[in-house]
Amino acid sequence: MKKQLFLILLLLLGACHLNAQKFTVSADKTHLTLGDVVHLSYSLEGGEGTSFEPPAFTGFRIMSGPNVSNEYSGYNRITTHHLKIEYVIQAMEKGNHTLASAHIVSGTKKLTSNTLSFTVSGNTTGGANPGSASSTDFLFMKAVANKTSVVQGEAVAVSYKLYVAQNVMMTSPTITKMPTFTGFWSEEVKSTIHMAPTEETYKGKVWLVYLQRKLILFPQKTGELTVDPLEIECTGQAPAQDPYSDNNFGGFYGIEPFHKVISSDAVKIHVSALPDKGKPASFTGMVGNAAIAATTDRKTVKANQPVTYHLTIGGEGNLSLQQPPKLTMPEGIEVYDPKTTDKFDRSGDNLSGTRTFDYTLMPHKEGTFELPRITFSYYDPAKKSYFESQTLPISLQVEKNDNPVSNDNDTVSTSKKKPVSPMEFLKWAVLLVGSGLLLLAVIMFVRKKEKPQTGADPEENPFADLDHDWYLAEAEKLAKHDPQNEFYTVLLNALYKYMEEYLSIPFAHISHESIETGLRSKNLDPALITNYLNLISEFEMINYAPGGDTSGKEKAMQRAKEAIRQIGKG
């Protein structure tokens, strides 16, 4: 009888031992938003475990784990073993997700845990409305456009900004998905990544703002266009509660790691069509503010020798979309396809700089040729009007070529000549200035009518309604975008071009003598005439002499304005 009672008691203890073995999993939350962090805890009670098999964690990213801990407790000589396996995971896909069972071996049995169900919403934590987010909302991103209503071709600057709470430690974010700018031509602003943060108050809280990307967009079609979101991945440490509460790092709640993938909202841009009223025939799609200028690398050339014709468009706007104009040259001059050179500044809210087209011209017969004006027009969205700009005609003297067979021989023989000394070159420059036979070596003056186009033929009266400040304003605008060595060239063109209008002298016949003769015929003060001619000579010496002083541009501009004003006043 005693032996039977002992066996029954042993069976009951074994049953109790088996019943005490429980393998379960729990989570600190099951209703999530995209990017939220979840703490999972697998618990085995009443035994030791081996051969742990976790689930696949579909829709989640493992941030930490498995982290294993063992706990032992004893009561009345009975020892209980408690095994814990913990994970930190992050929600990466929206929708309903079921975490499958995990498995573990305890003794001779393979135990299976329960499953867990999660609901992940599609709104990224810390999205466009951080004020309505949960206590873990410590960073978000916004796309900010400087304007949302434009005309086709007008620049829109879009900045992607990451907002981070001040007591959050974050590593450098990584862009995981770039926007696709459907319907836009995009130009990325340089030097915008890894910049020091700025501070910005948003909904009553001060945030650290990191600029992730900035782009200049030019809409290529009308209607409502969408600027897509930018998606980034970032990691770091954040307070376990609201980062803007009084409990900061080291407090009761402590800190927890985070690994988030967040994105900005989409931005809608309304694009209107360019107006048809006043659109000139020369308009090819430039939207912004621009000017055009033309130069040649020489004014005298032998037949069948090349001449480089530089055509420069300068200003701000959709310059990178401008195509080379088609040149129509006098009969006997062949035109070859141009090479394009860009000098762009992408640091602001618009694209600015110059685009230069270098054409090769090949004159095949001797004579004097006038390279015609090139007309260029643009739409100014600030003034809501079309404007035109024109180059000046260029006189090209083509001489007889006694050895037209090989241009290379001419180049070689020239290279064998004795080099010209600096003193001889300076002497030549001084004689050239004093002789009165100077012609402009480079023509980069820009002509623009400072009034909306009315559809009138610009050749009927190309210099109507002009005042003396107009020329210098155009020169100053173009020189600003190509300031290295063209300032005095453009300024000289302004002084010469004013004389063409004021004295009604063809531009090809402008010289010191013709200017002096024309001004004296108007009975002007001789001191004004001398001052004007001396100013031209001084600027020519600076522009053409070796090592000329190119400083003091602002003062030179003011002197030129005053000289034109004095002549105009009479």
Question: How are the SSEs ordered, and which strands pair?
Answer:
Blueprint: H1 2-20, E1 22-27, E2 31-33, E3 37-45, E4 50-53, E5 60-75, E6 78-91, E7 95-99, E8 103-106, E9 109-112, E10 116-121, E11 139-145, E12 149-151, E13 156-165, E14 169-170, E15 174-177, E16 184-188, E17 198-202, E18 205-219, E19 223-227, E20 231-239, E21 255-263, E22 267-272, E23 283-296, E24 300-302, E25 307-317, E26 333-335, E27 339-345, E28 352-363, E29 367-371, E30 375-380, E31 385-390, E32 394-399, H2 407-415, H3 422-435, E33 447-448, H4 468-481, H5 487-503, H6 512-520, H7 526-544, H8 553-569
Parallel strand pairs: 2-10, 12-22, 23-30, 24-32
Antiparallel strand pairs: 1-3, 3-6, 4-8, 5-6, 7-10, 8-9, 11-13, 13-18, 14-20, 15-20, 16-18, 17-18, 19-22, 20-21, 23-25, 25-28, 26-28, 27-28, 29-32, 30-31, 31-33
Helix pairs in contact: 3-7, 4-5, 4-8, 5-7, 5-8, 6-7, 7-8
3D structure, described in words:
With 570 residues, this protein is an alpha+beta fold. Helices cover 21% and strands 40% of the residues. It has 8 helices and 33 strands. Strands 23, 25, 26, 27, 28, 30, 31 and 33 form an 8-stranded mixed β-sheet that branches. The protein is elongated, with a radius of gyration of 39 Å. 31% of the residues are buried.
Q: Kindly name the structural category.
A: alpha+beta
From the spread of the alpha carbons, the general shape counts as: elongated
- Record field, number of beta strands: 33
Helical residues, percent: 10-25%
Q: What would you report as the Rg, rounded to the nearest angstrom? A: 39 Å
- End-to-end distance: 141 Å
Binned strand content = 35-45%
Largest sheet: 8 strands, mixed
Low-confidence stretches: 15-19, 124-136, 247-252, 405-418, 425-467
The pLDDT mean sits at: 77
Number of helices: 8
